[in-house]
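Section 5.1 Outputs to date
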Amino acid sequence: MVIAAWGAFALFHSVTVSESYERWALRVMGEGRFRAYHRLLFTLYSAAAVAVVLLYVRFLPDAPLYRIDGWIRFLFHGVQILGAGLLLWTPWDMKEFVGLRQWERRRKGEGETPGRNDRLFTGRGYGLVRHPLYLGFSLLLAFHPDQTRNGAATAATVIAYFFVGTFLEERRLVRKFGEEYRAYQRRVPRFLPIPRP
């Protein structure tokens, strides 16, 4: 049931982040309102969907799966700290990410001003892997030293969705940035920081 609930969220999220959905939203909203409000609306209904799934999973029957003690527990927390460090080392504009910055630009009459996401950034965390935010969150989820069955199913499903999402996201990024992104793909690994030959 847990995997099915997160799978339903993944399907909903994939549809609402797709280019065909965005083209439909652009037609319905018009270009000005789309640029100003679409990202914010997407964030709100995505957050609502996550909250619904989390509440649903919270009330499902659950049982402890494992509890890691001793020095291995410190090792797990160390990996989680690395994941949190990667999130902090990766520059991302939270206001741009949730859509507030786009709304502010519209309010100030700067609707055509390019945002941070309109430029390809390849430094810091993005120089280690192409999807450092996904990797950081995955390390936090995968290396939790106290895990229940539902927690493990949640972590596994979310991490799998992150990984599959990298392929879908990169198709869009190649269309947006072209050869510049292809060169970045050749230079930097996708999800795990495994050195390239």
